[in-house]
Amino acid sequence: MRPDDPFDDAVTARAVIAADGTLTQWSEGARLLLGHRPEEVVGRHAAELLADSAGPLPLPEDRWSGTLVLRHRDGGTVSVWVLAHHRQPSGDGPGEWLAVTPLEATDYDLPDDPLVRKAVFQSPCATMVFDQALRLRGVNDAMARLLGLPADHLRGLRPTDIGGRPQHSELERQLRHVLRTGRPHDMQTHMKARAESHAHAWLARLAPLTDRSGRVRGVCVTAHDFTEQFRARERLQLVNEASSRIGTTLDVTRTAQELADVCVPALADFVSVELLEPEEGGDETSGRLSPPVSLRRVAQQALGHDAPRDSAPVGELVVYPENSPQADSLAAGHSIVASVPSGDLDSWLSEDETQARRIEKSGVHTILSVPLQARGATLGVAAFARSSQPEAFTHDDVLLAEEVTARAAVCIDNARRYSRERETTLTLQRSLLPRSLPRTAALEAATRYLPAARSGVGGDWFDVIPLSGMRVAMVVGDVVGHGIQASATMGRLRTAVRTLADIDLAPDELLTHLDDLVLHLSEEAAGDSGPGEVGATCLYAVYDPVSRRCTLSRAGHPPPVVIPPHGSALHLELPSGPPLGLGGLPFESAEFELADDSVLAFYTDGLVTSRERDAGQGEALLLEALSGASGPLDETCDRVLNSVLVPGGATDDVALLLARLRGLPSSQVATWDIPADPALVAPIRKQVLDQLAAWELTDASFTAELVVSELVTNAIRYGAPPIRLRLIHDATTLICEVSDTSHTAPHLRRAKTWDEGGRGLLLVAQLTQRWGTRHTTEGKTIWAELVLADME
Length: 792
Description:
Elements: E1 13-18, E2 23-26, H1 28-34, H2 38-41, E3 63-71, E4 77-87, E5 96-101, H3 114-121, E6 126-131, E7 136-139, H4 141-147, H5 151-154, H6 159-162, H7 166-181, E8 185-191, E9 200-210, E10 216-225, H8 227-245, H9 252-263, E11 270-276, E12 285-286, E13 293-302, E14 317-320, H10 325-332, E15 336-339, H11 343-351, H12 353-362, E16 366-374, E17 377-386, H13 395-432, E18 443-450, E19 458-466, E20 472-482, H14 484-502, H15 507-526, E21 536-544, E22 549-555, E23 561-563, E24 570-571, E25 590-593, E26 599-603, H16 615-626, H17 633-644, E27 654-661, E28 669-674, H18 681-694, H19 701-718, E29 723-729, E30 733-740, H20 760-767, E31 770-775, E32 780-787
Antiparallel strand pairs: 1-2, 1-5, 3-4, 4-5, 6-7, 6-10, 8-9, 9-10, 11-13, 11-17, 12-17, 13-14, 15-16, 16-17, 18-27, 19-20, 20-21, 21-22, 22-25, 23-24, 23-26, 26-27, 28-29, 29-30, 30-32, 31-32
């Protein structure tokens, strides 16, 4: 019993009967009607009050109305009409039955007002009239049909007696408000007639009824059925909600989940979205599919956010046989509504016991299967199921499901196409970036590359390039734009940088040639339509481990950060230089001497800039994360990304390169000044052999002697003094360098049969791993590398 529903009302006799038939409460109205005091009947079986004690006591499952003959205390009988409700228990205790008996009391009629009688009995709308005690005093046939009871049986009931639903409690509250204020009031409510399976939406007008003196004596309730308009508005609201909530990201799983979330509970109690597995090569499935069909469940949603018991989990591959709604809708190419159980599903349920058990336990009675189709391709199927909603899917429900599903299918297709293009671009990007970094004696390096979380893959790149003389080049660049075109441009620029680095250009000269290349790429991209939009930034550095000096130049790129062995991180002050692609502007270089174990950090602007903050804040976080970078470089890279990047991922590509510099000890370098006299080549060879013996590299003596002899002889004959010979070695490589002040570079050529010369450089090329020439401001250096492992 509700505490706000007392039993001391003398107008209506009420009693509460427990599930076992025992009387538990007895109202004052019941005492007046039958003469029994509460203490005389409470605790007795209710059947004892029947005039015919042998007759059964009606115990309804939901609601029951009818006429009973009850025994009066004085021995007589009373014929009454009874309306009984089954009250659900609030806890785990027994259920209760509430018996309500209206009295034939004419003392509570409203005044004999013709307007009232006309409103009640002649109005085409469903109409009822309540008195000041909120007793129903008049009802027309339309309202009686709506409430599902005869008009005579409704007389004397209160709003909560009619059905006990929350909307009737709200009606009683609004009736009291009209009686108190005397002002009319409009309200919306849902009521379901007993003969119908679904509720109607009603717009009720509550108007006060006054007597001749103007005193409010009752309320007239007139209900207008606007179910169709209400349902149309609900459908339009669902379509609008689907437009705003579905497709917020370019993620297939997220989009499918948004479809399921929007449709529960507005359209169904349970929604699952299953997609076809991509065919080999990524081609979309077109046309109709023949069962059995294998689908991957990617999303589901249920009423109350709990999936039905034993439902297929997200990510599971589900196989639908012939006659299943999902397979039949994909085969037919249109929506299918199937009832459970039905002849259409019997064979399917008998073939798949797991699915049958899932459907049985979830209480599903109707399934609507809608194929997901977009741009002529079939993507999968969306299944809508109803269990707690008693109504089956109507034609309007099918149209609504198809409208929402069609919108979702386009979004899913867009997400798939984006994912496929993104994966293609990522594959291209990774193939163009270095798969591994070269191991050199000059430095230890670690890198990270992260594609943009939302804007797609861009053209960021990094590289570490070994140069002659144990030197190493480091480069980081960023191509303007995103997508495959940006990645392709990045690949071309990275190849160009490697080519230009191979000829040992100074950093500022290399950027000048790279600027010319970007201008040519812009012209190619534009064609006859005008200037192109190809642009890039770049930072190029060369570190010499012998001199421990690093030369850097940048083209519109963020400056690098240096972390001394025992100090805080700080930016290296470099001339900024214009971005690549502007043309006509010079680039400048800067040279720094860096201590051993110093760390250089190169990065692209995607690391420090975002929509949430400016570059200055990002730079400060970067310096803080890099300070004290004495541990492993891989750990430092991870710490930088975790500390600097905003939550949710970077809005632009991020490339990060960290390099810990290692200077070459002076004991691994030997230098001689060579007189310009061919007769002195033999003593030089002897000094070289002695040095190799001191380095314990006697296995390389024969080859090194031949190479040194050829390079020194060529420098004496064709170069210009002063001439210098330098030997450099580490654990794996021996380098021979001969420098002079002439700018004329030797060329490798094939000597003819009777030529007396021209075979020296050919011999050097055959005996060494690599050889080449690099130009300096003072002249040139010819170098050759010998791999010590090959000499053993």
